Structures are given as structure tokens and as C-alpha cells.
Automatic annotation (TrEMBL):
Residues 647-688, 714-754 form the UBA domain. Belongs to the peptidase C19 family. The keyword Zinc applies. InterPro entries: Papain-like_cys_pep_sf, Peptidase_C19_UCH, Ub_carboxyl-term_hydrolase, UBA, UBA-like_sf, Ubiquitinyl_hydrolase, UBP13_Znf-UBP_var, USP. It comes from Gadus morhua. Residues 75-98, 386-407, 497-518, 762-788 are annotated as: Disordered. The lineage of its organism: Eukaryota, Metazoa, Chordata, Craniata, Vertebrata. The active site is at residues 333, 809. PROSITE patterns: UBA, USP_1, USP_2, USP_3, ZF_UBP. This is Ubiquitin carboxyl-terminal hydrolase. Residues 763-773 have a biased composition (Low complexity). The gene is usp5. One of its GO terms (biological process) is protein deubiquitination. Substrate binds at residues 207, 219-222, 257, 259, 262.
Amino acid sequence: MADVGEVLMSVLSTIRVPRPGDRVHKDECALSFSSPESEGGLYVCMNSFLGFGSQYVDRHHARTGQRAYLHFTRTRKAQKEDDNNSSSGDPPKKKPTRLAIGIEGGFDVEQDQYEEDVKVVIFPDRQQVTSEDLATMPDVVKERVSLSMAGFMSADSVSHALQVQQWDGEVRQESRHAVDLKQLDNGLKIPPSGWRCEVCDLQENLWMNLTDGKVFCGRRYFDGTGGNNHALLHFQQTGFPLAVKLGTITPDGADVYSYDEDDMVLNPKLPEHLSHFGIDMMTMQKTEHTMTELEIAVNQRVGEWEVIQESGTSLRPLSGSGLTGMKNLGNSCYLNSVMQVLFTVPDFQTKYVSNIQKIFDEAPSDPTQDFKTQVAKLGYGLLSGEYSKPAPDPGDDNGTAEPRGDQVGIAPRMFKALIGRGHAEFSTNRQQDAQEFLLHFINMVERNCRSGANPSEAFRFLVEERIVCQQSHKAKYTQRVDYILQLPVPMDQATNTEELQEAERRREEADSGPTPTVRAKIPFSACMAALSEPEVLSDFWSSAVQAKTTATKTTRFASFPDHLVIQIKKFTFGLDWVPKKLDVSIDVPDTLDLGDLRATGQQPGEELLPETAPPPLMTPDVEVKGILGSYGNEEDDSLYSPLLSPVLDDSTVSQLCEMGFPLEACRKAVYYTGNTGIDAAMNWVMGHMDDPDFSAPLVLPGCSSAPGTTPTESLSEEHLATIVSMGFSRDQASKALRATSNVLDRAVDWIFSHLDDLESMEVSEGGRSAAESEGSREPPPGPRVRDGPGKYELFAFISHMGTSTMCGHYVCHIKKDHQWVIFNDQKVCASEKPPKDLGYLYFYRRVTE
């Protein structure tokens, strides 16, 4: 065997020193979930800085010829003393006092629990070189390798850089109302104690309005505790924006909430505002939990079984194939729940797990950025059982403690980073809507499966909408693709109305303390009836009568998918447009028969509405000259020109924008509803929110792009190459970029929302598409959907706990071998009482007879 110093000298040119901006993967294998804590540690290539577990490092060496690797291992430090015992010389752990991570008083990131070791390993003989060995080697070798090792140890790993290690949830902004707040001279003086809500006499969770000094109770929490919303109702009645939580006032400050800004805020003039009502901050003592302390308590409890509806039941931990937990990376429970369910679907197992070796063999040089590789890696990690092992007790250095339900599990850091890259929400550590993430992931699967099997077809189905003009009795049929059936919740159909009224009366009469939670019980049949009943369209433009009239719209299934996803529309808006969650119990059945909802198409003897569009909205002072218009040309045979822009009702556009919708979406809503008012525009927005081009600029009929889009000659060659690499022609890529002002992300969204049009663009030798040169052509084929009987059985559901999709916690229940299993991040247990009536997303599979 050659001398190790000579070997190092021969590979010295391949050894790099990490520079700022280099992606150093020292926490996770690119092809598995091996880590420095795993058996065998992690091998990091000293040239590309990609990490590989012991089972994949030889593959990388064989494919690349790279020989020098850093072998990185972490060993958990023994913790022989109790956390609260300082006899070891270390100070005891302190309870968090600040809603923060990685800073004084916040949650500890626990980076000091491991001892780290790193050495150089030369392949294929796996010769090892330690730091001590380097001291005896030539200076040129010693210097380069030492710098590389030092740079590796000091570099932030990719996962570290992607996570917010120092996060402060208490950073509050100064309220815009604080400085100029008007206070009423009503002579009211607030005593230092003995407060009660002026409406319900509640004695806790009390808030004093800083304008008029009125004291009311706070918001009611999702579990029925808290207040009765009287402070919020007072703001809605008076518009007085700021309130202070009584019991939190100390010389250092207090909790101040701005109802107008809907957030906790800073009030620099708080002493003055309190003094107006006779309160001296310097003499006040804290008697109530601050909002930060309440949030910390929730964060500390979020992983406990008490927050799950099966509390009080002894749950048996499970492990093995298909029973692998997933670590919560910081509000990633929505991702964990969705991916656990998806990889119980055979289509996803076959596409990614059964073909994993082929996917790995075809992976690019950097597999961490390859969608198929990372999805296959995640699927194998969940299904193989390799990581489904009980986690040892942190205080047991031998790892022989009794299992507590937690698993070692997998931490999907690379997957989360890749799937969320470029997305305004999924790239953050904020909580997200599981339904929105499911659609986002399906969209990415669609993009990456243009050739070969597409597992998202398991969920794809066609919806038929039948609109009947009530004046002419003629009908119009349209079809659209969908992946989720959204089920409305008719609250007026509750079967326990008297019980709900009695519970509300008790809450209003209660002096203090929480009252038992009573949920509205809604029959599942009532939800289905609300879905299937005709919807009245009051401002429908009928092409038969050439005017606005009333119509009815009926929605039915044009096809039934292999797997049906049902979303219970629990999240809605109140009259004040404040998001709220409907606390309901729905008797969701184990089996479904949707055969009665099968679309029948055009009825015998039924006449169809003429295919005539509403008259275009034009500026009244511009003359239209012929079909080309004043500014038309032969290549752009458009009725519209820069001067022929549509006249949109600015007030309706403004109202929609004030509700938080994107400007371009608001303009399209007003345009496509013909300036018929806010109700019609709002209905259009709610019906198109999931469209990929929802926020894209308004493209007028007959135009290849919106005003101001990019001409062909200025298109980015890099963007063109990126889209062409996804399987599209150059003409198709150019059309997408022109339609989206040369913005790559928007162009990709646009191209996938116009596949039917693009599929017909057969490129001719002259460079122009055949579609442009032919006067007529066959209509493009419809989307590929599966169909079969509409009979289904429930196999999984995802539940949400919290007041909003933007907070709280997600868990999922999956039926495996006739046994319900609960997946709560790293906890995987046999479910004794699956709360099927409280789910948010339900997953059914077709029953084959």
C-alpha cells in the first residue's frame, strides 16, 4: 500500500477549501438519511462538499473518481446528571422565558450535546489521516488539508443555513396608533385589582381599551377556553384600536394588542396612556400570564399526546416498514402529515421507491437539487423501516431506555429545502395549510413527470359544470381538472342546535373559568347535499338573450379518480373578513358511494347556449378600424391595441385588493365578470385562487401576451434553456416567457397551466409552429384521467388543531393492515380512538369489486 503522504500529495489538486457561498452538506447524506450521528458517520467529498453515508460513498467514488473525503462523526455526550442538577459543574437548564430560538432566554438549540470528530479518508483503500498525522507531512500537504478541514468545521451546513437558528418571536413593531391615540376624558379610573369583564363578569384574560378605559374579556380559544370575544366586539363597535392586558402591567411594560393591525405591538406612550385612567406602571405587579408565556407553553406542549384527541388513552408505539416517524423541522408537521399519506398510495411507491436504484443511477452530479432523487430518498426512508427505531432516552448513554413513542425517524431537510425553493411560503419555517402544500407538491410532480408514469394521476379527476340560463333554458357545459373535492359545511344543518344554544347561554352567564366545549354536529349527508345542490348565479351573462340574467350551476363528477381527497372547508371568513375555523364534528363515513354524482352530459332535446362571448370592455373614445384595429398588423391579428385597453371598475378592483388579493388577479376578476359588481368578481376570485396563473398579468383575448411583455429578441437565453430542458420546445418556451415578462418562475407556472394549447404547437422546420400556419386544427386532447366506479373506502385522514391553518399542529391517521396508526411527527403509535369526525383532509381509495 502506498504511503499515505504520497497519496495525499497525488490528490492534493482535488482538495478544495470551502469558500463563502459553497454548499457544505455535513449534516445529511445526499441519497439517504445517514448523518454524522449514524453508524458509520458521514463522508463529505473534499471537492464538491456533498455528504454520503457509508453505503453510498463507494458509489460516489466510482462515479466521480474523487478519492479524498472527510469522515465526520458525532457522538452524543453522556448526561449522567439530571437536567436540573448542577452538581456536575454545569448550570441547570433554565425554562424558556422568551419566545425565541438560539438567544438568551429562548429555546435552546442544544448544539453542545455532541462530541465531533473529523479525519481524512482516502479511497478506495480507506486510508485514514488525522490532524496529528498531518503534522509529519510536507508543508504544502499540511497547509492545504488543514485549511480544508478547518474551513469544513467552521462552515455552516446547508441545513443550518436554511433554518432560522436565531429567531425572536417577541420582536414587535410600534403601533401606528400609539403616538396620536385619542383618549376620552370620561373620568374613568381603573382600580389596581378586582377587574371584571363589563359584559360577562369574567375575571381573567381581561383587556382594557386605551381609548375609553372599558374592560372586556379576550378572545375565545379553539378549545372553548379563554374569553368570550367581548374586547374584540367592542373594537368592532367603536373602532378604538389599542388594548392592554390587565395583569401583565409591570414597570418594564405590558402586553398591548392592536385590533386594527391584528398583532401584538409596542406602545412607547404606554405609561402616559395608563396614567390617564389612574394606573401607575411603577407600582403594578404581574398577576397574569403574558401572551408570550402562553405561546411558549403551547410550543412546549405541541409534541405531547394531550393535544391529540386520543389523550387519556395508552398508545402503543409501533415501528417497522412503513411506520417511520419524521422529525419536525420547525412548523413542518403539515409536510410530514401529507408525505406520510402520499407514500401509502401505490402510484407514489412504484414511481419513486420501486425505481430508486434507477433514479439514483440517473441522478445529476448534485443529487441534492434533483426532484426525483430527493422524493425517492424520502419515500425509501419512510417505507424501508431502516430509520424506524425507538429513540433512546437522552439521559441514557447506553441507548437501552424503554421506548417512549418517539423514533429516531428521518429529518427531511433536503426535501423541504428543495420543495420550498422559490416559494414565498413553503421556503419559510412558518406553519402552512396542508391542503395548499398537497396541491403544491402535486404541481411539482406534474412538472417533473412529463415523460413516464405520473403518480398524481391517482388523484386527478374531471369536474363537469352545467349552467342553465333561466330565461332561455339553454345550457352550457364546461369541464375542468381537479385534485381535491372541497366539501362545504352547512352550519344551519347542525343536529344539536338546542345543545349549542344552551352552551352559548352558559358561556354568556358564566362568571369565570372555561365552559365545556360543545361542537356543532353536521351530518356528512348534509355536506354532500350542499355540494350537489344547484347554485344560483344572479349576474350571469347569457349569450342566448345577449344580456345579464339568472342561471343555475350544477357541479358533477365527469370521472372518478382512483384515490379521492376530500377537504372539509372548516376555514372561512367572518363578516369582518377575519379568518376563523369552524369547530364542527362531521360523521365522515368509512365507505362512500358517489355514483349519483356522476355527470350525464347534454340531456336529450336540450339546447346549448351559443358560443358567443360578452361584448369586450373598450375605452369609449377609441375608434376600432377593422379586425386589425388601428394598431394591428398581420402577425398580431388582435382586436386590441395598447390604446384599446379594457375599462375596469376601479372601485371593484380596489375593494378586492383591500381584501388582500393580488392586483392582477383583481383586474382579471373584474374583466372576466364584465364589470358586473363586487359579488360576481369575488365569486370569480374564489373559483380561480388555485389557478397557477392566478397572479399573472391580464392577457386579453387575441393577444399573445399582456401589454408590456417581452419581445422575442430580448428573451433570456438562460431562461429559454431552462424551460427547454424540461421537455418543451423553444417555441413553447418563448411563448411562455413573452406572456410573463421574461420572469422564469411565472413562465413555468404559465406553461403548465396552458398545456392543452401548447401540445398542439408542432414545430416546423421554418421555426414557426404548425399551429400558426394552419387555419384549423383538431382540438388538443384532454387531460389524462382515470375512471371507474364511484365507490370508495377511507384509508387516511389529516387533522388540524388550532384556530387557523397558519398556526396549530397537524397529525395524520393511516389505516395499515386493518389497524389505524397515528403519525405525530416522530411519534408513531397504534390508534385506539381515531378522531374521524374532526379531520380536515380525508383520503379514500376506490373499492374494486
